[in-house]
């Protein structure tokens, strides 16, 4: 099966992270490809930037379907363009935020999201509310490291552990979700950091990896989105795209 | 990896049947084993049946973990014993109803459950409410065929199609979920039946197969339930078990 990851940004560094972190996890029969968008922001840290990225994300997803890809992931915890893309294709389009919130809800009583910047907490509440899961969202915290500085792994892991401990001890979280797919590959280290602080019973969800596995699961089953929920848009004149 | 299916029934014929039905759902490299109960009901069609099944379901889940199984599935859309079993083990315990309802919520606006008997509708309403997805549950319908008569698959498929069409046309369902794992393997034929009746845009979820796929995904990710949500019960005297 062919799974494609769309990085909804123009920076190439995140492409490298995805390939590095996801390739080893692929099933033997999975062919993974990763592409970035050609126009849009260098990273997404606001709803505005997500909006700039969305039309280009949709274009890459339409292209993926044409290329015979079986399932697509839009690799960003704001799920930018995911619902718009679902209208334009029939293959499954996975949003890591929606997916990790639903899976977290199956794994534990309440979950906290640890994102990049403090200003970003509204979108996570909106996503949770939309999914009907706001009652399971214990809190939204942030590491206060911009997306493009997450490659300083030690700094990122250290801040993730600090915020995760607070989420568990102060906010009642039973599960942690990374609030940025740029944190891919850090779950083991964060869990180790939690254990060192005496917290041994809280799973940490890496949304990029989870989205990848759920994409494989859906593609395996031939299951995709309801086109009744996401019908093809009516034809009309569109300028600029 | 090893996945075990706990069939919450004492009906001996279900063992071979279960293995036959679940094996095709596994990907190459996944070993599926099934186990029945030694004490409990012939089938689950009521809350009482559920209650008498649970203690032995839990002991079979504990045995699975001791046998080195990577993930366990409880083969029943009442998810009987799910929370109790999770307290007693650390490996993932997958409930088909919980899993199918969350994934249905990711695939479409609203879903309907088509189960075996009409009197089970409140069970699904309550379960969906517990999960936070009750607003996405369009309706619960029934084929009105007891579990032990589901082997007449032609009759079952016909009734599933009839109820699914009504769920879509009258109740606003955008996704169909089978409400009994005894319906495993029938999604393709039901989808075909819907298409023949002009309904081409509604995915049909087979919860048994989906449970295997999600179990594989969780085992791949090394992800399991939060022991903070499902802590090991305090030691105490217990008589009769």
Labels describing this entry:
heterodimer; A: about 240 residues; alpha/beta; Rossmann fold; about 45% helix; globular; B: about 240 residues; 4-stranded parallel sheet; about 15% strand
Write up what this structure looks like.
The complex is a heterodimer of chains A (241) and B (241). Chain A has 241 residues and is α/β, with parallel strands linked by helices. Chain A folds into two domains: 2-95 and 209-221, Rossmann fold (3-Layer(aba) Sandwich), CATH 3.40.50; 97-207, Rossmann fold (3-Layer(aba) Sandwich), CATH 3.40.50. Helices cover 43% and strands 15% of the residues of chain A. Chain A has eight helices and eight strands, in the order βαβαβαβαβαβαβαβα. Chain A has helices spanning 13-22, 47-66, 82-88, 96-107, 121-131, 153-171, 187-196, 207-221; strands spanning 2-7, 31-36, 71-74, 93-94, 111-115, 137-142, 175-178, 204-205. A four-stranded parallel β-sheet of chain A has the order 2-1-3-4, with helices on both faces. In chain A, strands 6-5-7-8 form a four-stranded parallel β-sheet, sandwiched between helices. The longest helix of chain A is centred in the first third of the chain and has 20 residues, at 47-66. The relative contact order of chain A is 0.16. The model of chain A has no long low-confidence stretch (mean pLDDT 95). Chain B folds into two domains: 2-95 and 209-221, 3-Layer(aba) Sandwich (Rossmann fold), CATH 3.40.50.12500; 97-207, Rossmann fold (3-Layer(aba) Sandwich), CATH 3.40.50. Chain B is globular, with a radius of gyration of 17 Å. Chain B is an alpha/beta fold and 241 residues long. In chain B, helix 1 links the parallel strand 1 (2-6) and strand 2. A four-stranded parallel β-sheet of chain B has the order 2-1-3-4, sandwiched between helices. A four-stranded parallel β-sheet of chain B has the order 6-5-7-8, sandwiched between helices. Helices cover 43% and strands 14% of the residues of chain B. Chain B contains eight helices and eight strands, in the order βαβαβαβαβαβαβαβα. Chain B starts with a strand and ends in a 20-residue tail after the last helix. At the A-B interface, helix 4 and helix 8 of A face helix 4 and helix 8 of B.
């Amino acid at each position: 099966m062919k799974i494609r990851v769309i990085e909804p940004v123009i920076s190439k560094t995140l492409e490298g992270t995805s390939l590095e972190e996801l390739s080893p996890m692929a099933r033997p029969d999975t062919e993974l490809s990763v592409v970035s968008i050609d126009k849009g922001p260098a990273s997404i840290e606001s709803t505005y930037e997500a909006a700039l990225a969305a039309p280009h994300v949709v274009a890459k997803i339409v292209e993926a379907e044409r290329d015979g890809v079986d399932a697509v992931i839009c690799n960003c915890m704001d799920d930018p363009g995911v619902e718009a893309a679902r209208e334009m294709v029939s293959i499954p389009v996975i949003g890591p935020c929606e997916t990790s919130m639903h899976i977290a809800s199956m794994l534990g009583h309440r979950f906290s999201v640890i994102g990049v910047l403090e200003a970003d907490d509204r979108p996570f509440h909106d996503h949770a509310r939309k999914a009907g899961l706001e009652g399971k969202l214990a809190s939204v915290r942030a590491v206060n490291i911009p997306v493009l500085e997450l490659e300083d792994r030690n700094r990122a892991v250290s801040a993730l552990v600090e915020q995760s401990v607070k989420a568990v001890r102060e906010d009642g979280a039973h599960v942690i979700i990374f609030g940025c797919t740029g944190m891919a590959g850090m779950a083991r280290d964060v869990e180790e950091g939690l254990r060192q602080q005496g917290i041994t019973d809280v799973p940490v969800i890496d949304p990029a990896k989870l989205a990848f596995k759920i994409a494989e699961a859906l593609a395996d089953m031939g299951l995709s989105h309801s086109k009744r929920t996401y019908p093809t848009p009516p034809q009309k004149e569109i300028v600029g795209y | 990896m090893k996945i075990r299916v706990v069939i919450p029934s004492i009906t001996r014929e279900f063992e071979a049947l279960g293995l036959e039905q679940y094996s095709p759902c596994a990907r190459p490299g996944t070993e599926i084993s099934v186990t029945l109960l030694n004490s409990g009901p012939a089938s689950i069609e009521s809350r009482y049946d559920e209650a008498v099944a649970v203690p032995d379901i839990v002991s079979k889940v504990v045995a699975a973990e001791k046998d080195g199984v990577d993930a366990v599935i409880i083969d029943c859309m009442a998810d009987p014993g799910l929370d109790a079993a999770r307290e007693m083990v650390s490996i993932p315990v997958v409930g088909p109803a919980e899993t199918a309802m969350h994934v249905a919520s990711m695939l479409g606006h609203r879903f309907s459950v088509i189960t075996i008997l009409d009197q089970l509708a409140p069970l699904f309403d309550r379960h969906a409410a517990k999960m936070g997805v009750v607003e996405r549950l369009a309706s619960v319908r029934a084929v009105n065929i007891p579990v032990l008569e589901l082997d007449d698959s032609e009759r079952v498929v016909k009734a599933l199609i009839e109820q699914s069409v009504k769920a879509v046309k009258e109740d606003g369902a955008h996704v169909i979920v089978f409400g009994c794992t005894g319906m495993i393997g029938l999604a393709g034929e039901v989808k075909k039946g819907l298409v023949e009746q002009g309904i081409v845009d509604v995915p049909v979820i087979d919860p048994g197969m989906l449970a295997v796929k999600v179990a594989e995904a969780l085992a791949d990710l090394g992800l399991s339930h939060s022991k903070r949500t499902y802590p090991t019960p305090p030691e105490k005297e217990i008589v009769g078990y």
